[in-house]
Amino acid sequence: MTDVLDRVQDNSAQAAPRRAAPKAQRPGIVDCDIHPLAKSAAEFKPFMSAHWWEHMTTYGSGVRQAFASTLAYPRMAPEVSRADAWPPGGGPPGSDLDFMRAQHLDANGIAHGVLIPLRMNAGNQRNLEFGAALCRAINEWQIENWVVPEPRLHGSIQVSADDIDFSVAEIRRCAQDRRYVQILIPPRNSEPLGRKRYWPIFEAAVEAGLPIGMHVGGVSGFPAGAGTGAVSYYYEEHQSLVQAMQAVIVSMILEGAFEAFPSLRLTCIEGGFGWAPSLGWRMDKHWKVFRSEVPHLKRAPSEYLREHVYLTTQPVEEPEKPEDLARLMEWIGYDRLMFSSDYPHWDFDDPAYAFKHRMTDEQKQKLFAGNATRLFRLEAA
Amino acid sequence: MVETRERAQQTGQSAGPAERTAGGGSIFGHPAIDCDLHPAVPSTQALMPYFDDYWREQFLSRGVDRLNFAMSSSPPNAPFSARPDWRPKAGVPGSDFEMLKTQALDGFGVTYAIANVIHAAQAMHSEDMAAVFCRAVNDWLAKEWLDRDARLRGSILVPTENAELAVEEIERRAGDRRFVQVLLPAMGEKPLGRRAHWPIYRAAEKYGLPIAVHAGSTYRHAPTSTGWPSYFLEDYVNQSGAFESQLLSLISEGVFAKFPDIRFVFSESGFCWVPAFMWRAGKTWRGVRAEVPWVKTAPANLIREHVRFTLQPIDAPPDSDILEQIVEQLGSDDMLMFSTDYPHWHFEGTDALPRALAGDLARKVLHDNAMATYTRLHD
Q1: Is the dihedral of CA A75, A79, A85, A86 positive or negative?
Q2: Which residues of chain A from 192 to 221 reach within 8 Å of chain B, CB to CB?
Q3: Residue B262's closest CA among B271, B254, B270?
Q4: ipTM confidence
Q5: I want to staple A113 with a disulfide (CB 3.0 to 4.6 A). Which of A31, A300, B13, B147 is the partner?
Q6: Measured between beta carbons, which residues in chain B are less than 8 angstroms from residue A251?
Q7: A62-99 pLDDT per residue, tens
């Protein structure tokens, strides 16, 4: 860890040429966002019943959009990935464990990596029974294909939030297995996640002692603009994910989910973090006038934000002045920021180069390892 | 318009023509222009004289004259819709001329105040009914308010979902130079950058009218991309997300390149979210600009040049270092424009100008930035 973090320090002084940076000898970073992909859908077959395998190959994914098998807004790179992340042995980026080890886990000193499976929109299937089968398959596939051969990796329990009964059952089924470290719910669902219909999921999360991980994305059927209709470009859709993330946090705080479940924790993944302080100020400001509408809140909204919400760092904010990044992270608090790389995607953050400001050793320790180690109950890196 | 802006910018160095013509002083020790306050239509009956025979007969026979067209994004009885001391004993907050005159115009000592009437005219599903209601509200505003106090200026309400009818209304009203901008709600059917709206911008540019985008929704869509929240408070907090969407729509669709002289005035939007939005919009743009090749200027600089933000509500602790830092992060002293948002409840007493805005910056926020934005205030 020391070596990698020293490179961070060097980078702030523009000192270290990228190629000259030494490989970490003592890995120690926790990466909260690594995307595994299947080489082909057949990888899921062992984890699905004959019926659901047949269903998947016949009908495919069915979500609330016009496009049968692709995202509504085409990305800027094939598989949304770094050009150098395609495994030499074939298959899409993120599908080859050996190559992932060589290119990322070993090279960047990753002691623990949290898997975030995204493909198939398992969390938003219109056919809830199929969605449940898909979630189960993805959950088992993570363990068998990734965590068993590479114990540095940890699984996320994918659930389908609009199927409350299934979600609760799946959390209970998986929570016995400590190789899962969080519950994965997309930020876009039928309703804002703080609404009461979703509370049984939070109850199960608290019972299992697992945080909710919310990775940007999801297909809700609502237009990507924040109440403004369908946006035109991927440029807009990419940023709209951040607004969706904020809307979920607003919902969970103001609808009282954190008041009702004091030990519930939420991790926001790949939404950035620049917006968090002003969201807290804004909620507090208006809560003072509207508080008779939300008597269930016992504290200022920003206090729930500060206590219950963790933010992963990628894509790292890039203020015009680097000192604003330092200020921003202090406003949020280093005990709530956790490093994530988004490997192998195109906007990957390299732990050695992502942060353009100077951090103390204590701040680095929290951000790169300590916070996640504690939240996910990992072995100390 | 460009010439006027340059002229107004010169007032930054010395007391230029704009300041001299404005004259007077506010309670803040500088001339002040209130860029967002809300006279309200007291009842639909008050609009009846402003409909033609066909519509008047329609509305009387259908009982439309007895309907209440308050917007659900600002429910009149909610605490935020009127500060307790600004709430009339009876009737809709903002509907009493004498109260508004005494409390807002005299109370702050403003030179001008720009009236944004928030009315469901802009949300009506019948495009024809929306158009006649907008027309009636505009005519009512001119006669019942602008005629009664020379300090008041107006915004032109236009039907939001039909650009042709919106342009008709702009052209009908543009001759009255007391109307200084066009009003659109923050959430409508289509994002504001979409080409369907461009005829509105073309007309606005032609007549020297900025476009005010004001908090509120026609609720054509859920107010978030993950559905309908439970509480009004959530909707109000989530407004900033809508403003972010609209800002990125205007940038990515190339509106600022196509209509370089138009200014957009984000009203009741807050502004503490803007620096982080700029950073993210800039970062993503560097990665995806091939998708929007007409965007040739960094988003932060486009925003600084083309977009203005009214002051209230201030979505940060008002008297803290934080606000100073946010203003510094905006990276321009030209972007904020004073507003009270009267009669909405965002501050107490006359404490509308935070201490973080002092000296030269205070003068610009109170006055110069508005003069640079609203060319019609130079008449």
Answers
A1: negative
A2: 192-195, 218, 220
A3: B254
A4: 0.92
A5: A31
A6: 224, 226, 229-230, 234
A7: 999 999 888 999 999 999 999 999 999 999 999 999 99
